[in-house]
Design brief:
single chain, 614 residues, alpha+beta, Heat Shock Protein 90, five-stranded mixed beta sheet, two-stranded antiparallel sheet, extended
Length: 614
């Protein structure tokens, strides 16, 4: 029967060509393309779609052209060629919008949101997903459930687990109402992924096994791979490496069968992770090399970042620090490309736009009710009409205030979350830079160069520690300077080898909250002055002493005193230290803080700083 249908379509195409009818030929070509797509012959389907497009362009049949572009986009999406899929989906969407075909436009926007989510471009994924929600009524449908599911997975990727679970359970509820087994299985898989990210591995495995059972019963081999991969991840986190590998290998076979390039790369990365954990280094390298080749074909930055992180673990475990350093530099570049500040702001703005649009729709509904009420009350007495009108207006004002409060509160929560994410990323990048400097210092023989690199490493760590405090704390603009300086000095003592010898450290620090704009330069100043003491003061001192005090004085002035019991500076050395880069930087930072510095070298070396806080 299938062969008869194909022969019939070829006969239809032959007749159209004989009659020199371009429109009929394009229609026959599109039908043949869809026939080959349904039977898994994607290469043949693409050939016929491209032929149909060349004829459809000449006939200017926008509806058929939009359908053909959509068909090509679907094929490229299933092959894992996301950039090509986006290109053709965008062309199809533009045509459907021109034709005012809202139904197909919504389906395409939903598909685009899924692809951008898979590529790790989360702001574009949310832009299309919230665009779908704003265009459709929230009645049970497959598209609505898919949209909820996509939003949940995007929030999962950005670390907003509360919203992720909220949207995932919304999707599950809609799909249960629709009673579509494969979609219910997909929702259980998404919920399992979220619990996996939350490190709730038992809850993750419970939902993932539900998904796996439903998919096996429905013989849904194409989507089975994702659930197999996720179960492997949960087992890996529980250190059940043998069981995890079995699920990964089953997933890999299916992904190769369906030519899922990106999915195959993900599973190869997972297998490499298992091989590193079990110290099978040769096998790990083979998996990583194959995965990287596929990642470059798919253009997926997230998977490339993950591939590089596993490589670094591999070479650190092999003690091949040169190659670990090489891939660390590449990882820095990839991370910077993944999420810029502009992207973070776009995520926040898209959520805010969606909330505002919902609020405006509700206001319009309230205004319509008001007009109906006013028309019904025209026949009543004037004082009753005035009373009811005033009451309705009052209700509208209360609702406006209420909805505005909700929007502001939700936006504030997202801003705080995103600011924390920014501090986290800055802290990570600074720590990576510190590690790079540390690795570099191990290869330096020149003493001056080694000291310069060590000094730079200390300055980077001082700044990284600030961002760590900002990320871990509840405040986004201020830190506890007592806790920060204590941790910084302990780090420096360890770095210069004073943690393991007799050393008298006297800290008298008041608990003071200061703004990050002052904390960063103050931290760099403390780093320079304390480092100078550790490097130069104690060469001839059997019992080193370092005194550091910090307190508020006068009208909101911060006083900082740092002194040691070293030999002090000789005249020539004093001139040298006054001209040194470190002290120059201290004076420059103090100028920025509008502070003053006094230095005394009579008995050891003492620095007194006075910094206004307002």
């Amino acid at each position: 029967m299938s062969q008869t249908k194909k022969d019939s379509l070829h006969a239809r195409l032959h007749d159209a060509i004989q009659k020199n009818d371009p429109a009929a030929s394009a229609s026959a070509l599109s039908s043949l393309a869809f026939y080959f797509y349904e039977h898994g012959a994607h290469d043949s389907a693409l050939v016929y779609y491209y032929k149909a497009i060349s004829l459809t362009n000449a006939n200017k049949d926008k509806k058929r052209l939009a359908s053909d572009f959509n068909g090509i986009g679907v094929i490229y999406s299933q092959r894992g060629l996301m950039d090509s899929s986006i290109y053709y989906y965008d062309k199809s969407l533009a045509l459907y919008l021109t034709l005012r075909d809202t139904t197909n436009a919504i389906i395409l926007e939903n598909n685009l949101s899924i692809i951008y989510k898979n590529k790790g471009i989360y702001e574009k994924a949310l832009e299309h997903a919230f665009g779908v929600l704003s265009k459709m009524k929230e009645e049970p449908s497959r598209t609505l459930a898919s949209c909820y599911n996509t939003i949940g997975l995007v929030y999962l990727k950005t670390g907003d687990y509360k919203d992720a679970l909220n949207y995932a359970y919304k999707a599950l509820g809609v799909r249960k109402l629709l009673a579509v087994t494969n979609l219910v299985a997909q929702s259980y898989n998404s919920i399992g992924e979220i619990y996996l990210a939350m490190h709730a591995y038992d809850s993750a495995l419970l939902n993932l096994q539900k998904s796996l059972t439903l998919k096996r019963n429905a013989a849904d081999r194409k989507t089975l791979t994702t659930t197999l991969n996720n179960i492997g991840d949960a087992l890996f986190e529980q250190k059940r490496f043998g069981a995890a590998k079995e699920y990964y290998l089953e997933s890999l076979v299916l992904k190769r069968e369906f030519k899922d390039i990106l999915g195959e790369a993900v599973t190869l990365n997972n297998l490499a992770k298992v091989s590193v954990a079990t110290s099978d280094f040769k096998e790990a390298e083979q998996y990583l090399d194959k995965a990287r080749e596929l990642i470059h074909r798919a253009g997926a930055l997230n998977e490339l970042r993950w591939n590089l992180e596993i490589r670094i673990q591999l070479y650190e475990k092999k003690k091949d620090f040169a190659r670990a350093f090489q891939y660390t530099r590449e990882l820095l570049i990839v991370r910077d490309s993944l999420m810029t500040q502009q992207k973070v702001e776009s995520l926040m703005n898209m959520q805010f736009r969606y909330d505002v649009e919902k609020k405006e729709q509700q206001i319009v509904m309230l205004e319509q009710r008001q007009e109906i009420n006013q028309s019904e009350l025209k026949s009543k007495q004037i004082w009753i009409e005035a009373l009811i009108t005033a009451l309705v207006l009052f209700i509208i004002i209360i609702l406006l205030v209420y909805y505005s409060f909700r929007v502001v509160r939700r936006s504030k929560q997202h801003i705080e979350m995103l600011l924390k994410e920014l501090h986290h990323r800055v802290k990570n990048n600074l720590q990576i830079l510190s590690s790079v400097l540390s690795l570099q210092s191990q290869q330096l023989m020149d003493k001056n160069a080694l000291q310069a690199v060590k000094a730079s490493e200390g300055r980077v760590n001082a700044m990284a520690l600030i961002h760590k405090k900002l990320y871990m704390g509840d405040q986004n603009r201020s830190i506890d300077i007592k806790e920060y300086i204590t941790e910084l000095i302990q780090y420096l003592a360890h770095t210069y080898g004073f943690a393991e010898r007799k050393f008298d450290l006297n800290l008298k620090l008041e608990e003071i909250q200061i703004d990050v704009d002052k904390a960063i330069p103050l931290g760099l100043i403390v780093n320079e002055l304390v480092s100078n003491s550790f490097k130069y003061a104690y060469s001839r001192q059997p019992l080193p002493v370092l005194n550091v005090s910090l307190y508020l004085s006068g009208q909101r002035n911060l006083s900082l005193e740092i002194s040691d019991n070293g030999s002090g500076f000789e005249e020539s050395a004093g001139k040298e230290i006054n001209g040194a880069f470190g002290l120059k930087m201290v004076r420059t930072l103090l100028k920025e803080l509008k502070g003053k510095l006094d230095m005394n070298t009579d008995k050891g070396t003492s620095f007194t700083l006075d910094i206004p806080l307002s």
